[in-house]
Amino acid sequence: MTTTGMNKSALSAVSAVSALDAHLTPAAPVVSVKPVTLDSPGRGADLRVRISAPAAGSGLPVVLLSHGHGSSLEGYGPLADFWAAHGFVVIQPTHLDSRTVGLPQDDPRTPRLWRFRVEDMKRVLDHLDVLEAAAPGLGGRPDRTRVAAAGHSFGGQTVGNLLGLRVLDPVTGREEDDLSDARITAGVLLATAGRGGADLTPYAAETFPFLNPDFARMRTPALVVVGDRDDSPLSRRGPEWMTDAYTLSPGDKSLLTLFGAEHSLGGIPGYEARETTDENPEHVALLQRVTWAYLRHALGVDDTAWAAAREALSGGAAAPARLETREPGGTPAE
Predict the structure, then answer these.
(1) How far is CA 187 from CA 35, 79, 96, 106, 306, in A?
(2) How confident is the model at residue 80 (pLDDT cuts 50, 70, 90)?
(3) DSSP character for 168?
(4) How far apart are the C-alpha atoms of 133 and 131, rounded to whole Å?
(5) Could you please report the per-residue DSSP string of 276-316?
(6) Is the pLDDT of residue 180 over 60?
(7) CA-closest candidate to residue 188, choices 238, 278, 276, 253
(8) Does the structure show a pLDDT above 80 at 72?
(9) Closest CA relative to residue 32, chosen from 82, 96, 67, 95
(10) Beta bridge partners of 225
């Protein structure tokens, strides 16, 4: 890579990536199988899933990856491929809101799409035997004691539900059921919506009434990732809205802020995804490594790369991002 004409932010991102590469495990060939279909009574359509894993190795931790609104198991290659090449089993369900499903807006399931998404993730966990058997050579290699979930945008709220987030009824304020799952011991929330109510635009309040989360019980450890230029049309508050999952949840949390990034965080929805408005390979490369380091840290695999990420992104005027942490027992902001 040549640095001619690169600005200071890009140069600092390259420097941070280089620092983290010193701790990166070697990339392995990836085996990916799609679609694996899981019977899903009551869903109206069977659940289609993609599984990606390194071709060799054992004791592989597992990450469930929940896509953003409209995407599918075909999306998020920049993250899924990277994590799989560096030692994770990555499982990607296609939720009912995917464009590949083609659900009509007036479908009776539409108001509960958020809940179907959570049920999809639980169904994956319930059928790990089926998924493991469907991928050639994967049998006996995943470590089912080390399971995390990651999600972007709508997928971030889906993951939040598994970590303890509650959805509030926008009219009564009553909490929906606790949908947390003890099998998920860490999460990564990427560009995830903040509080609802008065923080929403009229369009968002009418169209997406489930965007009304309560983070007070989201206690499972998580890394929250935001872009400081992610000015969502769904909120009146601007980019700061996306930090709520960090500032309003208790316990062991970390916040990665990518400077100059918008909602696609440099291009994580896909290599050529139409959702990408802020294409930035340096942001994607940094995000790949920081999320990988966090997942290994949070799942108890190794802390070395996470310590290096915290040091590399601890501050400085030319830093490409800022990484903040709150230790176990920490309380959310008032």
Answers:
(1) 24, 14, 22, 32, 15
(2) very high
(3) B
(4) 5
(5) -SS--HHHHHHHHHHHHHHHHHHTTS-SHHHHHHHHHTS--
(6) yes
(7) 253
(8) yes
(9) 82
(10) 190, 256
Encode pLDDT of 196-215 as tens digits. Answer: 999 999 999 999 989 999 99
Q: Which residue has the tokens 């005027």?
A: 317
The per-residue pLDDT of the chain, averaged, comes to 92
For 172-218, give the DSSP string: T--B------TT---EEEES-----GGGB-HHHHHH-TT--EE-TT-
pLDDT in tens, 317-329: 678 999 999 877 6
Q: Name the nearest CA neighbour of 119 among 190, 169, 194, 44.
A: 44
The β-bridge partners of 47 are 38
- Mean pLDDT within 170-187: 89
pLDDT tens digit sequence for 271-293:
988 788 899 999 999 999 999 99
Strand partners, 223: 188, 254
Taking alpha carbons only, the member of 293, 292, 280 closest to residue 320 is 280
- A 10 A CB-CB count for 237 gives 18
Closest CA to 222 of 286, 285, 158, 280: 158
Both tokens of 229, joined, read 């230029």
- Using CA atoms, how far apart are residues 153 and 134, in angstroms rounded to an integer? 29
Q: Quick one: pLDDT band at residue 14, thresholds 50, 70, 90?
A: confident
The secondary structure of 253-280 as a DSSP string is EEEEEETT--TTTTTTT-TT-TT-SS--
Q: What is the pLDDT of residues 163-173, one digit of tens each?
A: 999 998 877 77
Contact 213/193 with Cβ under 8 angstroms? Answer: yes
Name residue 54's beta-bridge partners: 30
**Can the peptide bond before residue 209 be classed as cis, meaning omega within 30 degrees of 0?**
no
Other CB atoms within 10 A of residue 105 CB: 6
- Res 333: pLDDT: 57
